[in-house]
Amino acid sequence: MTLEGTNTWVLAEPGGRRAVVIDPGPDDDDHLAAITAEAAARNVEIGIVLLTHGHPDHSAGARKFAEMVHAPVRALDAAHRLGDEGLVDGDVVALDGLEVRVVATPGHSADSLTFHLPADSAVLTGDTVLGRGTTVVAHPDGKLGAYLGSLHRLRALCDEAAVTTVLPGHGPVIDDAAGVLDYYLTHRAERLAQVAEAVRAGINEPRAVVEHVYSDVDPILWPAAELSVRAQLDSLADRE
Asked: Is the pLDDT of residue 118 over 70?
């Protein structure tokens, strides 16, 4: 589910003394050591740690890492913070010339955030958009309606703020932000229509819906697909 693993981003303005680290990742000593080595190689100190959301593959190592480098952790969910400051939609995190704008993008999880880097025409999307494949709407915390709204919001940023690049939480960088968001929106609409058709055919149990609708997906991913199916079934029920 994490593809090649969790992408941790070390961001610093050219010539800046301090860096922002986004998603320190799991509580894995080798992974955390790699972050500090990257900062050292770039001759920057870690000033702030930000989280796109609180799922363990993004956040479990955050407190240990932050204590190692003496930096606060800022997140939407207070349970994942270290220090007094959180993050909310519209916040701007500025550090030695670097500007990171906070965009609320709930849906994958209730606390999911995207970070907009206007100087780079880029967005760091956590699990809202992946570098390969599509993401899970993690029912019951994740909500399909909120997720679709977040995709539309990010798609609008492509036009309004000339966003071209997606820096995802997993997988490779995407250089066609508008294209991948259009694909995500189309894909979600198609899957929801397939689930609705299955329900009309009398297939109502989530695992049975997965086997019917996601037959083109590797069965190893069916447990994740079931989370999305449950979110889709909830969304269909809300429409009735």
From this structure: yes
Q: Which of 180, 153, 177 minimizes the C-alpha distance to 163?
A: 177
Percent of the chain predicted with pLDDT > 70: 99
Residue whose tokens read 């906070």: 102
Per residue, the 3-state secondary structure of 5-40, as one string, reads: CCCCEEECCCCCCEEEEECCCCCCHHHHHHHHHHHH
Q: Residue 169 pLDDT > 80, yes or no?
A: yes
**What pLDDT, on the 0 to 100 scale, is given for residue 41?**
96
26 token code pair: 């799991």
pLDDT at position 150: 98
Say if residue 239's pLDDT is above 80.
no
Rounded Cα distance, 10 and 105, in Å: 21
How far is C-alpha 156 from the geometric centre of its chain's CA atoms?
A: 17
Measure the CA–CA gap between 41 and 38, rounded to whole angstroms. Answer: 5
The distance from CA 123 to its chain's CA centroid, rounded to whole angstroms, is 10
pLDDT grade for 1, boundaries at 50, 70 and 90: low
Q: Which two tokens stand for residue 79?
A: 């349970």
Using CA atoms, how far apart are residues 221 and 226, in angstroms rounded to an integer?
9
Query: In residues, how long is the chain?
Result: 240
Q: In whole angstroms, what is the distance from residue 59 CA to residue 53 CA?
A: 7
Q: How many CB atoms lie within 10 A of CB 64?
A: 13
| Contact (Cβ atoms closer than 8 angstroms) between residue 75 and residue 87 | yes
3-class secondary-structure state, position 136: coil
β-strands 98-104, 165-168 pairing:
unpaired
pTM score? 0.94
